[in-house]
Specification:
- The chain is α/β, with parallel strands linked by helices.
- The protein folds into 2 domains: 140 residues, Rossmann fold, CATH 3.40.50; 185 residues, Dihydrodipicolinate Reductase, domain 2, CATH 3.30.360.
- The strands form 2 sheets. A 9-stranded mixed sheet has the order 14-13-12-11-7-10-9-8-15.
- Helix 4 runs parallel beside helix 5.
- Bound molecules: nicotinamide-adenine-dinucleotide.
- The site of nicotinamide-adenine-dinucleotide has 23 residues, from helix 1.
């Protein structure tokens, strides 16, 4: 086997806008042989658009085909049942975030994959952004000293849309935090190389008139296992052009300031400010920011295509995927702790 044969479950926004195009453009160790969507019209349209030989509208038909792996890009309330079904059919699984709704679902997904001996990877695509990788490298190198604070922001203007599943809490189970904040939480933990242990914050539905109650405004404060603090801010009510999607990391010897690296594009911009040693107290508060300022200029490589390549290699070489059920379970626990903290207006410890 030199190429992994893939099926896609869910041919909506992220699959058709990012993952399938990048798959077709840049992946050499895999091919898409079938797409499935609950809407046969949608599956047909995507198959035709991307020259994919087969489409269908049931999991059973897709999973009965000669495929090795599936990419699950459906609403999160069906990630668990589709993962279990795919595992029972012997297929490896790359699953979109959020992994599932509850830790019980994650446990059932993990059991099914273990029993079937198939691999599972959680689609934390933003770990593939070249600037985010550099940020992690700078933190791990110690160049920033002891990290004391990290901030991650991801927003989008998201007005009411009839029948949008994200705006129906019985399907989405959350708003801006669950949809976008989960990426930010993972980004900060991964770059700062520490887990979040305590959370608190505010969430509101300030602007948008959704048909059910989900937050369009989420501002969360966290403490990491190493003592550092963090801010995760996510909004469905800021114009896209106005938002910066900021990533900011501060330590005792410097900082990283990035914009646009948390998002679907593989690019962004970033600079760091570092000094070799902690300096003495400067009562004048003079900030010589230019002396040790470094700009980074990297070429972005599609982050969704990279995930397909990485997971296909894991299957071909029988290696463990870089993101797994432990990451997914932790993510669900973080989200649970945040919603609990907001509801109860208090600081909540993240369960381990
Ligand atoms: N990693 C990322 O950057 C990223 C970005 C966007 C979305 N996502 C995640 O991807 C998932 C899909 O989001 P989206 O924006 O593409 O949504 P979407 O609504 O644009 O697309 C979802 C598709 O799934 C289909 N569908 C719904 N129920 C189904 C079922 N039971 N079986 C098969 N198909 C079904 C719909 O018809 C639709 O075509 C979500 O979990 C979301 O959080 C991840």
């Amino acid at each position: 086997m030199d190429k992994i044969r893939w099926g896609v479950i869910g041919c909506g926004g992220i699959a058709a806008r990012r993952t399938i195009p990048e798959f077709k453009q840049m992946v050499s160790n895999a091919e898409i042989v079938s797409v499935m969507d609950i809407s046969a019209d949608r599956a047909k349209q995507v198959a035709e658009q991307f020259d994919i030989p087969h489409f269908c509208d049931t999991e059973e038909e897709l999973l009965a085909r000669d495929i090795d792996a599936v990419y699950i890009a459906t609403p999160q309330n069906v990630h668990a049942s589709q993962t279990i079904q795919a595992a029972e059919a012997g297929k490896h699984i790359l699953c979109e975030k959020p992994i599932a709704i509850t830790v019980e679902e994650v446990a059932r997904m993990e059991d099914a994959c273990k029993k079937a001996g198939v691999k599972f990877m959680l689609a934390w695509c933003m770990r593939q952004n070249v600037y985010n990788k550099k940020a992690r490298e700078l933190v791990l190198s110690g160049d920033l000293g002891r990290i004391v604070m990290g901030r991650a922001q991801l927003t989008c203007w998201y007005p009411p849309i009839p029948n949008a599943w994200r705006q129906d809490v019985s399907i989405s189970h959350g708003g801006a935090l669950l949809d976008m904040g989960t990426h930010c939480l993972d980004m900060l933990e991964w770059i700062m190389d520490a887990k979040i242990v305590e959370v608190t914050g505010f969430q509101d539905l300030l602007v948008q008139k959704y048909r059910t109650q989900i937050e369009d405004t989420s501002t969360i404060v966290v403490r990491f296992s190493n003592g550092a603090h963090g801010i995760i801010d996510n909004y469905f009510n800021i114009p896209d052009a106005a938002a910066r999607n900021s990533l900011e990391i501060f330590g005792t010897k410097g900082s990283i300031i990035a914009h646009g690296t948390i998002g679907q594009d593989p690019t962004g911009n970033m600079f760091s400010i570092t000094q070799p040693d902690e300096t003495g107290y400067n009562a004048d508060q003079v900030r010589d920011v230019e002396a040790n300022r470094q700009e980074y200029d990297f070429e972005g490589v599609g982050i969704y295509g990279q995930m397909i390549t990485i997971f296909s290699d894991c299957i071909l070489q029988d290696q463990a995927p870089p993101t797994n059920f432990a990451d997914g379970r932790h993510s669900v626990r973080l989200v649970d702790a945040i919603y609990k903290s907001v509801a109860e207006k208090r600081v909540v410890q993240v369960e381990e």
